[in-house]
User: What shape does this take?
Amino acid sequence: MALNKSMHPRNRYKDKPPDFGYLASKYPDFQQHVHTSLAGRPVVNFKEPEAVRALTCTLLKEDFGLTIEIPLERLIPTVPLRLNYIHWVEDLIDGQKQPRRGIDIGTGASCIYPLLGATMNGWYFLATEVDDICFDYATKNVEQNNLSDLIKVVKVPQKTLLMDALKEETEIVYDFCMCNPPFFANQLEAKGVNSRNSRRPPPSSVNTGGVTEIMAEGGELEFVKRIIHDSLQLKTRLRWYSCMLGKKCSLAPLKEELRKQGVPKVTHTEFYQGRTMRWALAWSFYDDVIVPSPPSKKRKLEKTKKPLSFTLPEAGLKELQAKASALGCTASSPVDSISALLEKTLTDLRVLHKHVPCMKQEQSLFLTAVENTWIHGRQKRREGSRQLRELPRAPHCSQTSSFQTTMVTAVPATNPASQNQSTQSSNAPNQTASAEELAGLQQPEEQIGNGASSNEMSKEQKESSVSVEDVDMDSSTSTEAVQETVPKEEPAAASEMPSKQPPSPAAVEPFLFKCLLNVMLEESDVVIEMHWVEGQSKDLMNQLCTYLKNTLLKSIASP
Assistant: This one.
């Protein structure tokens, strides 16, 4: 579970993330959803609804003593995010231990906000729900946790928010209301078709939830505006009105709406949970309430300066050092060996790099990326392998029983002109066949079938060919592995080699980005950090960091 140091200070998961290994050993229902990563750590696949549900139920049981049931076809809440909201409401009402009354608009099947608020702080809740299935599950979850004296689940008509729910309770003043509104206006938004950035990566977790839970007419913007409209009539019946938002773009127009309506007290905050971010808005008609300050810009600035990093565990360092030694690295320290492997990968990716001075027992490289050579590498290798499999095979020849060789440079032995042309091409410097180049060669059948037989082929021609069966068709085959199946040409004479030296990484223009890569030893592990310097997009550095991490971890996992 990816967490974040910017979570609410009182969130129990801020500095102590869940121990999946321990939870798996204690809860058999959760154990079946825990797997071991390439780094040897227990992980959960958040794309599987069953795994997400098992994690939520396990955390509620382990940390709060709550036993709940959630159907897979309804929204499965994440516990750290809900805790952030609960703690912020504590800040709003100034004191979490006093008896307080709250309203949860659309409590869902889990009824998680009332269950957490009642268990942690002894709050009284009025939980509303429009969906029949969610209402039945929420009622059951309250009853089986013996919290019926603190939580009242009520079924309300469709499109009802606050007005109808409070008709029968004219004398009660509530301290707050909470709401996790439907984020999307239609199916296209729910699928991310109308995302503000088409290049934005897909969410890391599965999207579950019923229609009424994830979609509403006009999306979350119109939904919250309806709550604002109700609050203008109820006013001091609630001390604080609040909603959680899934889109940052909804925050400004809602604050503007509150300003137009003359609401005196308005504030907002941000909820961080790993790569997930949410926003919350709150307003009040009371003059004596204490308004928590919005998040400061200073904290945002500090967040942007945080480097990207990943850790190589001690258990895999010996294998990486052995691999570095096989590549000719004579260094004995893990830091130097890892640095050598990183330099090899950066060279293969054509990322310019040079050593810069650093502290002892560290290695530091200044990187300049001028082209994106790491994105979609796996897809490219798969496409290259697929095209290799589709290359036409040579027809049966009477002079040879089995001639299934695909020529890198297929030249009939009886064609001197073509042979001379091939010789000139093969003598070009630094010309090796990549997987994509091999896949792009479509050999005419008559060129192979009418050429010389395998017995008449010269030794040089046989060495310049590669058999389809000899090429590893596994999707994880690297370009280097394919290149190794093709004999490389002898380098040209020293006098013919270009004398121009490669440019300095810091002097290249234009470029995608520049960053500083540090390799350091922390206790018995090796940590790699990437510090942003300048460039077009930090997402590109994030992609490269992920590529380097996966490359090293794959080396540990491979036999």
